[in-house]
Design brief:
Number of helices: 3
Distance between the termini: 29 Å
Mean pLDDT: 95
Number of domains: 1
Number of strands: 9
Radius of gyration: 14 Å
Strand order of the largest sheet: 3-4-8-7-6-5
Order of helices and strands: HHHEEEEEEEEE
CATH architecture: Beta Complex
Low-confidence stretches: none
Length: 152
Amino acid sequence: MLSWKDIIKFTTKGNPTPDKRVEKSEAEWKELLTPEQFRITRLKGTERPHSGALCTIYDEGKYNCVCCDTPLFDSSIKFSSGTGWPSFTQPIKDNAIQYIKDTSYGMIRVEVLCNTCDAHLGHIFPDGPKPSGLRYCINSESMRLQKSEGNE
């Protein structure tokens, strides 16, 4: 189980190696994604709080990157944070997420990206529930829910 200490270490010492890499040109991403998905995942945008389609969905399944379909989070570790964005306590695999120190807007935060294709997902904070204490605050537009069989 990852801890905040692990996350900080990734931002300073380097991220885990992904299982594979997906790289496309800006034009290829624009062709594959909706304008809002492109704005969020490729231009590091964010959606308005409580506006994302996946905020209040708790169906069983996996949350995959909307750009490259890499599994990022499992529904079993999703929780209601009250922040207005889907929140998770752990990635599906330690190497699914990339962690970048973000000093934009006069704050120090940790940005989270898909480690396979570098899609911007959101940010991570050390104020989540136990046992990890982590809160991955993720844009709905950066993921798609692959529902478990029998939950379609």
